[in-house]
Amino acid sequence: MLSRVEAPDYYRVSEVYMSAHNARTGRTKHIFFAVFGLLMLFVLYYYEVPLLDSNSPARQRIAKVMWLMLPHGIAGALALFLGLPQFSDRLRRRSPRLHRILGRVYVLGVVVSAPTAIPIAVILGPPSLVMAATIQSSGWLLTTALGLYCARSGDIRQHREWMIRSYPFAMVFVVARVILAIPAVAALGEVAFVSVVWSLIAAACFVPSLVISWGTLFRRRAVRVPAPRVKTNRAAAVG
Predict the structure, then answer these.
(1) In CA terms, which of 40, 126, 187, 219 is 20 to 30 Å from 24?
(2) CA–CA dist 29, 23 (Å, integer)
(3) 23-53: per-residue pLDDT in tens?
(4) At 3, which helix (H) or strand (E)?
(5) Residue 154 pairs with which residues in a beta bridge?
(6) Cα dist. 99→1, 91, 112, 152 in Å?
C-alpha cells in the first residue's frame, strides 16, 4: 500500500487573506480618522467659538460653572485630539516614545475631564442627565485606568483593547453635539437631548467590545489551516 500526503500552500493563502484584511482595516481606520476629525472641527466651530463672546447665551449659561468648565473643557479637548492618533499603527511603530507621551497626556486629560463633568451636570442640569454624566465619566475613568494598568504590566494586547473601549466615552461629547445640531432633532428640545446622550453612552458601553470581537473573528478565520488530505493508492499485490 502506498500513501501520499497532499499539502497545498494553506499558509500562503492565509497570508494573502491577512494582507488584504489588514489593508481594508487600514483604509477603514483612515476614513474614520478623517470623518471624526472633521466632526471635531465642526463642534469646535459651532459650539465652542460662540463661548468667546461674553454676551452670548451659551457663555451666560455656563458662567456659574466657569471655574469647572475651563479645566473640564481643556482637559477633554486634549484627550479628544491627542487620543485619536494613538490608534495609528504607524505612530506606534515609528515613534513608540511619542506614543507613550501622548498616552500619558490622554490619561491626564481623562483624570481631569471625567470627574468634573458630574458637578457640571448637577449644576446646569437637566436632572435626567446627572446619572448619564456619572455613568459616562465612570466608564471613561475605569476603561482608561485598566488600559494604563495593562500597559504598565506589559500586556499590550489588553492595553490596546481597553483603550479602544475608553475613547468612545470621549466621542460621546462630539457625536451628541453633531446629532443635536440637526434642526429636526434640535426642535424636539430636552427629549432629544436626553435620548441622544443616553443612546450614545449605551453604544459606548458595548460597541467597542463588538468591534474587538469582530476583528478577532476574522483573524481566527484567516489563520485556520485545514487538515491535510491523505490519498491512498491501492495496488493489487501479486504473489
Answers:
(1) 40
(2) 10
(3) 566 677 778 888 988 999 999 888 888 888 8
(4) strand 2-5
(5) none
(6) 61, 7, 20, 14
Contacts of 2 (CB under 8 A, 6+ apart): 232, 233, 235
Peptide bond into 183 cis (omega under 30): no
* Domains of the chain, residue spans: 63-223
CB environment 150-167: b (16+ within 10 A), e (fewer)? bbeeeeeeebbbbbbbbb
CA distance 81 to 237: 77
CB 178 within 8 A of CB 39: yes
What's 123-157 look like in SS3? Answer: HHCCHHHHHHHHHHHHHHHHHHHHHHHHHHHCCHH
The amino acid sitting at 201 is I
The partner residues of 231 in beta bridges, in order of sequence, read 4
Q: Which tens digits make up the pLDDT trace of 49-95?
A: 888 887 888 888 888 888 899 999 999 999 999 998 888 888 888 88
Angle between helices 10-43 and 190-223 (to 10 degrees): 160
Distance CA 221, CA 209 (A): 18
Identity of the residue numbered 126: P
* DSSP assignment letter at 181: T
In this structure, what C-alpha cell is assigned to residue 165? Answer: 473601549
**In this structure, what are the phi and psi dihedrals at residue 53, rounded to the nearest 5 degrees?**
-90, 115
Helix (H) or strand (E) holding 43: helix 10-43
Q: Are 140 and 206 in contact (CB under 8 A)?
A: no
Which residues lie below 8 Å from residue 178, measured CB to CB, with a gap of 6+?
39, 42, 43
